[in-house]
Specification:
Chain A is mostly beta strands. Chain A is globular, with a radius of gyration of 14 Å. Chain A contains no helices and twelve strands. The chains are: A mainly beta (about 120), B mainly beta (about 110).
Chain lengths: ~120, ~110
């Protein structure tokens, strides 16, 4: 069975500091994709970053980077230079090919940026 | 690019009525659309996977007759909650993808059944 685990229900970070949100996953499928989404209080799910299981390099998108450690089955999100607008729920998700492109979400981490 | 819209954004209905929610991919053709449900302070739960022109694939525990999904074109999927009851009140979110690419989400629809 595919499983995504986010062990931090809530996190605080000082504005302009970096923060790491943890995500571990479990799958027997050799081909999968890992995503991070941001959900502000408005409810919309905003795509942040994607990492493929065969990608050699860690994904980066602006202030977001994904620390992909395949052997440890972890895909932590690093947000650099936190901004007040980063306060939101963050979900880690995994898509596996043999699941017909279905995506499983973690339970989420609520990030609060402190001025 | 990759914009997905949902309509309505918020709906309140009486118990026993049916509610239709539309999900549109505005600037791309989506081979697959997904419908999720999210309870307050919880994660997204996949309800069904919808491919254009074919029947939706429902997740275990999701009633097909209760949550009717129609994927009439590559840019439109609809979810109809039939004979809605208060326990159906929730946040419903759709997403759309092209092939194996990233899923892009709509803004969600908050359904309240009185």
């Amino acid at each position: 069975a595919q499983k995504i685990t986010q062990t931090q229900p809530g996190m605080f970070v000082q504005e302009k500091e970096a923060v790491t949100l943890d995500c571990t996953y479990d799958t027997s499928d050799p081909s999968y994709g890992l995503f991070w989404y941001k959900q502000p209080s408005s409810g919309e799910m905003i795509f942040l970053i994607y990492q493929g299981s065969y990608d050699q390099q860690n994904a980066t998108e602006g202030r977001y980077s994904l620390n992909f450690q395949k052997a440890r089955k972890s895909a932590n999100l690093v947000i650099s230079a936190s901004q007040l607008g980063d306060s939101a729920m963050y979900f880690c998700a995994m898509r596996w090919v043999r699941g017909y492109q279905k995506v499983t979400f973690g339970t989420g981490t609520k990030l609060q940026v402190i001025p | 690019g990759a914009v997905v819209s949902q309509h309505p954004s918020r709906v309140i209905c009486k118990s026993g009525t049916s509610v239709k929610i539309e999900c549109r991919s505005l600037d791309f053709q989506a081979t697959t659309m997904f419908w999720y449900r999210q309870f307050p302070k919880q994660s997204l739960m996949l309800m069904a996977t919808s491919n254009e022109g074919s029947k939706a694939t429902y997740e275990q525990g999701v009633e097909k007759d209760k949550f009717l999904i129609n994927h009439a074109s590559l840019t439109l999927s609809t979810l109809t909650v039939t004979s809605a009851h208060p326990e159906d009140s929730s946040f419903y979110i759709c997403s759309a993808s092209v092939g194996t690419d990233t899923q892009y989400f709509g803004p969600g629809t908050r359904l309240t059944v009185l």
